[in-house]
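Sequence in, structure out.
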Amino acid sequence: MRGRSSRLRSGDLGHLHPRCPRAAHPIERAPAYPREVVKRALELGASALIMVHNHPSGDPTPSKADIEMTREVQKAAASLGLALHDHVILARGRHTSLTSLGLI
């Protein structure tokens, strides 16, 4: 039996934040709310998540806010039977995996 895969793409952010248009946020910060991330994953029938976002600065180092939000998503997801496999930050051809850093 094949596993089911669902993707929460960056284009889905409009669905996550219908009252928060992307253009209204400074380029260095676009909020992601843990409950909305988990809610959307459940709507898609996902059993696990891999979060991905970019840092336009070019530095893929996770910020304190990235780490805190990741932990909040992980806790919320786990309470509903969803696994958070990784949170990857992309930046100008480089990337950082919070799982590889031991943060997940």
